[in-house]
């Protein structure tokens, strides 16, 4: 679920891009998004992928049964594209057209991803710093606020 939908109830075409990125990460790692046993990666496949990307050990993210049967450049490029798809800010995510282009052309330059906001406190900080409030909707959808009696 994209951060903007989870935190604000706002859905857009970039929400699908986020989900697509998570699926790419799951396929490459051979794990579901919540199956990490390492304590500091326990709730987010993005944290594990980003850590391996930052350490320049992206091939350690790869499913062990696939090792030896892959193109190193294609795996690294796929992880880079997936990390672009799971950016917290929807404006920083590529469009599906751009993603298809990245996968179809090995010569096309893929932008470098930014570090995702991984902790819940950082997510809240990010969401409160956004220019519109939680009750505003940029997609002409209403957001209901429930108050106790």
From TrEMBL:
Residues 1-118 form the Protein kinase domain. Transmembrane segments: none annotated. Pfam families: PK_Tyr_Ser-Thr. It comes from the Eukaryota. InterPro entries: Kinase-like_dom_sf, Prot_kinase_dom, Ser-Thr/Tyr_kinase_cat_dom. Keywords: ATP-binding, Kinase, Nucleotide-binding, Serine/threonine-protein kinase, Transferase. This is Protein kinase domain-containing protein. It comes from Stylosanthes scabra.
């Amino acid at each position: 679920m994209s951060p903007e939908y989870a935190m604000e109830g706002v859905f857009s075409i970039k929400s699908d891009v986020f989900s697509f990125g998570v699926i790419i990460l799951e396929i490459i790692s051979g794990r579901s998004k919540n199956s990490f046993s390492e304590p500091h990666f326990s709730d987010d496949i993005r944290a594990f992928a980003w850590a391996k990307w930052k350490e320049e050990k992206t091939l350690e993210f790869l499913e062990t049964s696939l090792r030896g049967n892959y193109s190193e450049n294609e795996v690294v490029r796929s992880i880079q594209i997936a990390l672009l798809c799971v950016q917290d800010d929807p404006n920083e995510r590529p469009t599906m057209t751009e993603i298809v282009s990245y996968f179809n052309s090995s010569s096309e330059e893929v932008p470098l991803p930014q570090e995702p906001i991984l902790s819940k406190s950082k997510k809240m900080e990010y969401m409160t710093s956004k220019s519109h409030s939680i009750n505003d909707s940029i997609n002409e959808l209403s957001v209901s606020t429930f108050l106790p009696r």
